[in-house]
Amino acid sequence: MSCDVLVLLLSPVSACMYLWTGKFATKSEQLVGEDLDMDSSKFLAETITPLEELREKPSEMRTKMELLIMEAQADFVQALEALETKSEQHFHVDRWLRPEGGGGVTCICQDGEVFEKAGVNVSVVNGVLPPSAVAQMRARGKQLPEGRTLPFFAAGISSVIHPVNPHVPTVHFNYRYFEVQDGDQVQWWFGGGTDLTPYYLYVDDVVHFHSALKAACDRHNLTYYPKFKKWCDDYFHVVHRGERRGVGGIFFDDLDTPDPESVFAFVHSCSQSVIPSYIPLVEKRASMPYSGEERLWQQLRRGRYVEFNLIYDRGTKFGLYTPGARIESILMSLPLTARWEYMHEPTEGTREQELLEILREPRDWIL
Ligand SMILES: *[C@@H]1O[C@H](CO)[C@@H](O)[C@H](O)[C@H]1NC(C)=O
Ligand SMILES: *[C@@H]1O[C@H](CO)[C@@H](O)[C@H](O)[C@H]1NC(C)=O
């Protein structure tokens, strides 16, 4: 589907987003200053924080992160739309506000020809953290007072793409910024990552994917890729199966050094590496023929994806236990279809077995 069609489809969402033609100056990777312009006219919906308010505080991290995620959402959805061939199928954009503060823009494509289910979710939320959530953060090493509610702000983008063709891998990414206020002190950190879940192993594809992420990391700190690659392998561990969810990528949390601007620049590079890391794999594989058996294997692997998300995923669990959370958005990462079969075990020497071996023993893709 072309970009023009996308604009037509999405324009009813918000007519007033075209009223603002100003540009925000944010920090680029090379220059502390003004060269990164984000044009809000391409956003899929109005920003959650009114533009007027954002314009008053262009250099605040909250503003910069909200603009980053809105832009990343628009860019990624446009890249996916361009690949979706089912003419009447398009992304459904849902902008919602939360009575307690903030809101989000959920963007979903379901039952496409290329994408069985694709979700690209943005949220900008503020409110107060209950003592139980503060306790969870303390357990992770945050210096916060015990037994009190604390004001917080969170802005993030999260996306999961489940394609139809079993030769096209699933991708997931999430980038978020968090602030917690303790008296007149503000604690802040970033977290996120991008990871790939193939159903059939194409070594070149995995190497391409990891190389794009590594390039984004290496621009900021040479220790990032090895550290965050391992963190990803450790995090996406389906412990009860003894398998990783996929072939990994990068994952990090609680990143608060050396300073907000540097971490923001890193997160910006990561978010910009999603399209070049993944879209070429869809282009390459989406029209490959596949058999019913290959589709069945994909469905079984999707079952594992569900097991991970419901049992281990921090974001999903946090969402499910948050009062007033939007369940549909939290569970949008689940595939449309999945399958469980009693004692299914691929035969030796098959491509299914080849994938399992990789998932049981994560390896380095870039030597
Ligand atoms: C997606 O939306 C839900 C609320 O509907 C929110 O709980 C979740 O944190 C959002 N994900 C991100 C990373 O923004
Ligand atoms: C890279 O990150 C490490 C921590 O992982 C830090 O000790 C080091 O100072 C950083 N290097 C640069 C060049 O920022």
From TrEMBL:
Keyword Lipid biosynthesis: no
Enzyme class of the recorded protein, top EC level: oxidoreductase
SUPFAM superfamilies from the UniProt entry: Coproporphyrinogen III oxidase
Pathway linked to the protein: Porphyrin-containing compound metabolism; protoporphyrin-IX biosynthesis; protoporphyrinogen-IX from coproporphyrinogen-III (O2 route): step 1/1
Any Gene Ontology CC annotation: cytoplasm
GO BP, sorted A to Z: protoporphyrinogen IX biosynthetic process
EC number: 1.3.3.3
The entry's keywords: Heme biosynthesis, Oxidoreductase, Porphyrin biosynthesis, Signal
Signal peptide extent: 1-15
Molecular-function GO terms, alphabetical: coproporphyrinogen oxidase activity
InterPro entries: Coprogen_oxidase_aer, Coprogen_oxidase_aer_sf, Coprogen_oxidase_CS
Family annotation (Pfam families): Coprogen_oxidas (PF01218)
KW Oxidoreductase (keyword) present: yes
Family: Belongs to the aerobic coproporphyrinogen-III oxidase family.
NCBIfam families per record: PRK05330.1
Protein name (Swiss-Prot/TrEMBL): coproporphyrinogen oxidase
